[in-house]
Amino acid sequence: MKRELPNRPNLEHLKSQAKELLEASRRREVSAFHRIREAVPGFAQASDDELARSQFALHDAQSAIAREYGFPSFAKLRAHVLVAAQPYPAELVARFAGKLTPDVEAALRDVWTKRDVEALDALPTPAELPALAVRNAVVSPGALVPLAIGRPASLLSLEAVVKSEPALVALFSQRNESDEHPTAEDLYAAGCVAVVRRFQPFEQGGAWVVLEGVRWITLLGLVATEPFLVARIEATELDEGDAAEVESLDAELRALARKGASKLPEKDAALAMIEQIEDAGRLSDLVVANLHCSVAEKAAYASELTLAARLRTSIRFVERELSLVTEGGDGGAARSR
Fold first, then answer.
1. What is the mean pLDDT of residues 126-133?
2. How far apart are CA 319 and CA 273, in angstroms?
3. Which of 64, 258, 310, 323 can pair with 39 through a Cys bridge, CB separation 3.0 to 4.6 Å?
């Protein structure tokens, strides 16, 4: 019995479904036994009599419900629901609250609820892409970011990008925020391919754009600077290194990330997101993206070519942030103009 989750799944409703399945099995309903055999591998070969005599418990019923919805465990289903229940990340809420137009805020919420990691992974990395020079941020893979656009060249770049499908743009952070016409030497070489999810020009000039990071890239050079930047790029190859070392560092980072997440107002959703991300590199990117590090520090992190080095850097950053007593963030939107 395969099911699809509604757009706004309710965790308590899913728990109730598990209890109902458990009660139906105790009533020896044939339909319940059929669902259990179909969903739970451990009971796949059990007869009705064997199921009736089994110690089928609530956690087994929850596992069955999770598998019916396509999740390997109820813990994974729970993590998905908690993350989906949050319109968009708390970090975005805090950083951009009151600073975005209603249309842009609605776009953020809409994109967040529809994000698809597998679809992002399938997007290509062209050899050349229109580029944006970002003044005060490093955009990471998987990050959802609104940028304020004012520079004419950046506007022209985005106007060209949104005519393509997929609408991909290369993002590189500026070394000096005050540079109005950055060259390749003025940009950090470690950047990110992003897909344009929303582009909203304003009648009075400028625009907002909502970007979703795809993957790390390396700047090989600029093939054009007029009328906008066009970058020659390649996907960054990350050395996975020693599996045992990575596993140990991943466990250390997860423990620190949970500690930090537990201090957030939306701690349940933050903790669920950590549990949902199985890939060590993705977790590391997420952690660094949400820390109060300088652009130079985040660019240095992105330039690391081994997974172990990135994990060690993430751990160092988290330890530093946890040691601080200060509160609040940087309070301003990233911008490219």
1. 97
2. 20
3. 64
pLDDT in tens, 89-110: 545 544 555 566 677 777 777 7
The CA–CA distances, whole Å, from 103 to 64, 99, 100, 209 equal 40, 12, 8, 11
Residue 305's nearest CA partner among 238, 216, 215 is 238
pTM to 2 decimals? Answer: 0.71
User: Is the separation of the CB atoms in 195 and 326 below 8 Å?
Assistant: no
Burial of 159 (0-12, 13-18, 19+ CB in 10 A): middle
Instruction: Give the model confidence (pLDDT) of 26-46 as tens digits.
Output: 999 999 999 999 999 999 999
- Mean pLDDT computed over 18-22: 95
Q: What is the C-alpha to C-alpha distance for residues 41 and 147, in angstroms, rounded to an integer?
A: 47
- Exposed, middle or buried, 52 (CB in 10 Å: 0-12/13-18/19+)? middle
CA dihedral of 238, 243, 246, 248, whole degrees rounded to 10: 180
How far is residue 168's CA from residue 160's CA, in Å, rounded to a whole number?
10
